[in-house]
Write a structure and sequence with these properties.
alpha+beta; Peptide Deformylase; five-stranded antiparallel sheet; three-stranded antiparallel sheet
Length: 161
């Protein structure tokens, strides 16, 4: 079901999320549907959106959903960086549509997670997908791209840069 996306300034976006417990695993199918439906509606309206974090719909659980060709549910992810190479990007967010923020992200990341079936998985990502999952992972820790701005002049209204 389509859920409202919490918007910039909502105090819930700045809270730390908790891990999914074994007792909560059965609820993941419903959460995944909500994340999928919400992201697809955002994509339909805004012509953007490749991933969403559970906290963005008010669910304080460490769950990410990504769909860049095939849907992937990442439960209790842990992120690491194989090297220190970084890149500068313009970051956008479903929680502040129309606003772009210039940030620095690692060029590569490795993310360990459990999939919807409880299987342990690892994704090695580079470039824009690495940036995407770093952005979503930040949501799990209550960090928004606005908090990672390179400086006070790193904010842009879409179409004005």
């Amino acid at each position: 079901m389509i859920q409202p996306i919490l918007q910039l300034g909502n105090p819930q976006l700045y809270e730390q999320s908790e891990e999914v417990t074994k007792e909560e695993w059965a609820e993941l199918a419903s959460l995944e549907r909500d994340l999928h439906d919400t992201m697809m509606e955002y994509r339909r309206v805004h012509h953007a959106g490749r991933a969403i974090a559970a906290p963005q719909i008010g669910v304080k659980k460490r769950v990410l959903y990504m769909n860049v060709g095939e849907p992937i549910l990442l439960v209790n992810p842990r992120m690491e960086f194989p090297d220190l190479e970084k890149m500068e990007v313009m970051d956008d967010c479903m929680s502040f549509p129309g606003l772009l923020v210039r940030v620095e992200r690692y060029r590569r990341c490795r993310i360990h997670y459990w999939d919807r079936n409880g299987e342990e998985c690892v994704l090695e990502l580079e470039g824009d997908l690495s940036e995407l999952l770093q952005h979503e992972y930040d949501h799990l820790d209550g960090i928004l791209a606005t908090m990672r701005a390179l400086d006070e002049k790193s904010f842009y209204v879409a179409g004005n840069f």
